[in-house]
Structure formats: structure tokens, C-alpha cells
Amino acid sequence: MRPDETPETNVDDQKMTRAEFLTATGKTVVLLGLGAAGYASWNSLTSRLAQRKLTPIAEYPGSPWYSMAVDLTTCIGCGKCVDACCTENDVPPEHFRTWVERYVVKKDGSVVIDSPDGGRDGFTDASDSDSDVEKAFFVPKLCNHCDDSPCIQVCPVGATFRTEEGVVLVDYDYCVGCRYCIQACPYGSRFWNEKKKTADKCTLCYHRIKKGQQPACVSVCPVNARIFGDLTDPESPLSKFIKSNPVMTLKPHLKTGAKVVYKGLSKEVV
């Protein structure tokens, strides 16, 4: 059921002073020039900035307040999450509510990114010689269900809204197909569903979580790389994961209040 009112997010906690911004930016520039050791410090710094709003506390607009974490240190890029999502939600061909990208970082600093069929069938061996590769890793992506969602702000008819549990959804009956939300999303998480004639995206499998089930992508992961839960519950798997691991959001500088967090997020992705 669609709520009559969308909970307002207190953005004061997410604001950064000019001094903090300049300090963080200066440190980032210096640390990135120091190689691996510098990056470790950079990751620690940016994790603290990105984690401010995500530390499990009770000060959320609603309870439960759902979100997800992704552990990139365990993801194997098998694509089972993508396949489960497409099957569960009848996602049209060539579109994805969640997808997996592979990053191959070469020793010369160049980065090759691919996601064949959204990573649904996994990945074949990279064509690059092992001697040329510095590192390689997988990054699952999905809607970040932002607390300050650009998509909600630009929708002219209120078809994109946030539920009382913090899940950003699309009301397919209200959507007029202007596609403003697709353009506004800085994470590329939305697409045009030709069958429905509406914008579409990840819903965290809202129909499942309302029944107490896990999102389809979480339930099939063989290495438990996706962790779903309630941010207002300190005993939830998600809250415990965030408390015990350094995590970051994608593009934290945009201050969208993104709720999906990552462990092991490399600077090539941010």
C-alpha cells in the first residue's frame, strides 16, 4: 500500500562543512599519490565520511528501515543474484534491476569494465595476460534506495515514492512515462520497461520482504556477499555487518543518502 505521506529525511546529519570538505579533499589528493598504503588510508577516511548516516541507530523516519550491504571481498561474480532477480521479477530481456560488473585493473593504471548480459551467466576469463593485470574484482549494483532520492524529487506526478520502510518504489499506475527519474538517477539503476510502459528498477523484492522473506538476490548468493536487513534493529545481520566492517556507498560526494553500502569498494569504482 502506498503511504499518504513520504517520510522526510533529516539531511542535517549528512551535511559536510566547507572545512571538512576541503580537509577531506586535500587528504584524498595526497593519499592517492602514495600508492597502496595511501589508498588504505584514503579508504579509511572516505569510509568514515560515507558511514555517518549508516551507523545503525534508531533515528530513522520509520521502523523497520530496510537496506542492503554488499561484501566485495567475497563476491565471486557467479551471476546467480542477477538470474534470480530477473526470474523473480519478470525483468524484460536486456534490462536488469541488479547487475554485476567486472573491473580489471592493469598495471599501467588503465581499467577495463565489462558486464556481459548483466553478469547473469557469470564471466569468462579475461583476455588480458595475467602479467598485465594488477587486480580484478566484481561489483554487484542495484538501486540504492536513497534517503534523498533525486528520482523522487524530479517525478512530476509522485509516481516514484518512498514507503514507510524506506524502500523507493514506482507506482506503475501513476507513472506517465516522462522518464525524468531515469535521467536523474546518478547510479544508472533505472530503465524503461517497454512491456509496462513505465520506469522500472529494483524494489528490494518488496513483495517478498513484506512477507518476512529475503530479496531473491540475497537468498541465492552462494557466498553470502549480499546482506539485507533493518537499519533500526541493532541485532539485524545488516546492522551487525555495518558495525563490524568499514563500508562505503557509491558516489558519497553526491549526498543522495544512498543506503546500499559496500565492503571493499575500490577507488576505481567510486
Topology, please?
Layout (H helix, E strand, L loop, with lengths): L17 H15 L2 H17 L14 E6 L8 H10 L8 E9 L4 E4 L18 E10 L7 H5 L5 E3 L5 E3 L9 H5 L6 E3 L4 E3 L5 H4 L6 H5 L5 E5 L6 H8 L2 E2 L12 E3 L7
Parallel strand pairs: 1-11
Antiparallel strand pairs: 1-9, 2-3, 2-4, 5-6, 7-8, 10-11
Helix pairs in contact: 1-2
The CA-CA distance between the termini, in Å, is 35 Å
Give helix % range.
25-40%
Quaternary state of the chains: single chain
The average pLDDT score comes to: 85
Structural classification: alpha+beta
Identify low-pLDDT runs.
1-36, 46-53
| Biggest sheet details | 4 strands, mixed
Q: Can you tell me the overall shape?
A: globular
Strands of the largest sheet, in order across it?
A: 9-1-11-10
* Beta-strand content: 15-25%
- Summarize the helix and strand pattern as letters: HHEHEEEHEEHEEHHEHEE
Question: What gyration radius follows from the Cα positions, in whole Å?
Answer: 19 Å
- Helices, by number, come to 8
Number of strands: 11
Explain how this protein is built:
The strands form 4 sheets. This protein has a 4-stranded mixed sheet. The chain has a 3-stranded antiparallel sheet with strand order 3-2-4, covered by helices on one side. Strands 5-6 form a two-stranded antiparallel sheet. It has helices at residues 18-32, 35-51, 80-89, 150-154, 180-184, 206-209, 216-220, 237-244, and strands at residues 66-71, 98-106, 111-114, 133-142, 160-162, 168-170, 191-193, 198-200, 226-230, 247-248, 261-263. It is of the alpha+beta class. Helix 1 runs antiparallel to helix 2 (35-51). Mean pLDDT is 85; it is low at 1-36 and 46-53. The protein is globular. A hairpin with a 4-residue loop joins strand 2 and strand 3. It is 26% helix and 19% strand. Among the domains are: 11-74 and 224-270, no CATH class; 148-201, Alpha-Beta Plaits (2-Layer Sandwich). The longest helix has 17 residues, at 35-51.
